[in-house]
């Protein structure tokens, strides 16, 4: 799993195959490389193969990588739980936030986004399976939060993100993805201009693509196993 070129080709082939089954254009689905815990050198190497978008869960870890890789044209996505005391750094340094799930956080991101930067792209994280241990707004609250987000300056609502319940004998993640796609289409029907449905990871990207995903988040299947560390 440490051959980055081969890994990227395999992911691209899986996306193409899933899109073929779904009757979709593979160009509709982008790859977000989840680079948390991986060193900047691995990000640089993957960027040399054409990968531009990278997802990070921890602010301080991400900022260190950004500084080391500042000369590269990279698009940084924050995908982890976001606390109020971290919003300023995220608003100042990231291009995307995929884990917004509270109006308080969105307001802080809006007010703290520097005016000299382009608008911060935002996805609302949805707790589609209502799991107590997971972040995310409940499905029935998505519309209200989306419309409130539209009124905020310096941020651009792009769509929805979810991390569904893990697959098991009693749960098929495809069902979660179907419900997410319904939420996404409902927003569009309400006149909310969203274009991003971020869902699907290494183990289930096919099911996500079959149900309308436009962005899959891939970590281990691209970078290989994460280095062991005692710190976040």
The profile of the biggest β sheet is: 8 strands, parallel
Rg, Cα atoms, Å: 17 Å
Which bin fits the share of residues in helices? 25-40%
Order of helices and strands: HEHEHEHEHEHEHEHEH
* Total domain units: 1
**Order of strands across the biggest sheet?**
7-6-5-4-3-2-1-8
Structural account:
The mean pLDDT is 94. 39% of the residues lie in helices and 17% in strands. The protein has an 8-stranded parallel sheet with strand order 7-6-5-4-3-2-1-8. The chain has 232 residues and is α/β, with parallel strands linked by helices. The chain has one domain (4-223): TIM Barrel (Alpha-Beta Barrel), CATH 3.20.20.10. The chain is built from 9 helices and 8 strands.
What characteristics describe this protein?
single chain, 232 residues, alpha/beta, eight-stranded parallel sheet, 39% helix
Would you kindly provide a brief summary of this structure?
The chain has 232 residues and is an alpha/beta fold. It has one domain: Alanine racemase (TIM Barrel). It contains nine helices and eight strands.
Topology at a glance:
Layout: H1 4-22, E1 30-34, H2 40-48, E2 53-56, H3 59-68, E3 75-78, H4 87-93, E4 96-100, H5 103-112, E5 120-126, H6 142-150, E6 155-162, H7 173-189, E7 196-198, H8 205-210, E8 215-218, H9 220-223
Parallel strand pairs: 1-2, 1-8, 2-3, 3-4, 4-5, 5-6, 6-7
Helix pairs in contact: 4-5
């Amino acid at each position: 799993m440490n051959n980055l070129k081969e890994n990227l080709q395999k992911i691209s082939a899986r996306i193409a195959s899933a899109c073929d089954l779904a009757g979709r254009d593979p160009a509709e689905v982008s790859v977000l490389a989840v680079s948390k815990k991986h060193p900047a050198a691995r990000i640089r190497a993957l960027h040399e193969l054409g990968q531009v978008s990278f997802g990070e869960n921890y602010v301080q870890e991400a900022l260190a990588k950004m500084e080391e890789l500042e000369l590269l044209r990279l698009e940084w996505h924050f995908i982890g739980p976001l606390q109020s005391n971290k919003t300023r750094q995220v608003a100042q340094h990231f291009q995307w936030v995929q884990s917004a799930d509270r109006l308080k956080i969105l307001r802080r991101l809006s007010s703290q986004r520097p005016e000299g930067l382009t608008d911060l792209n935002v996805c609302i994280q949805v707790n589609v399976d209502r799991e107590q241990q997971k972040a995310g707004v409940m499905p029935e609250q998505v519309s209200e939060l989306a419309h409130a987000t539209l009124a905020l300056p310096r941020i651009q609502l792009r769509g929805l993100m979810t991390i569904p319940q893990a697959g098991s004998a009693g749960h098929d993640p495809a069902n979660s993805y179907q419900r997410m796609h319904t939420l996404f289409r409902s927003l569009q029907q309400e006149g909310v201009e969203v274009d991003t449905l971020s869902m699907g990871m290494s183990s289930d990207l096919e099911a996500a693509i079959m149900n309308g995903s436009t962005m899959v988040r891939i970590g281990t299947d691209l970078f290989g196993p994460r280095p062991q560390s005692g710190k976040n």
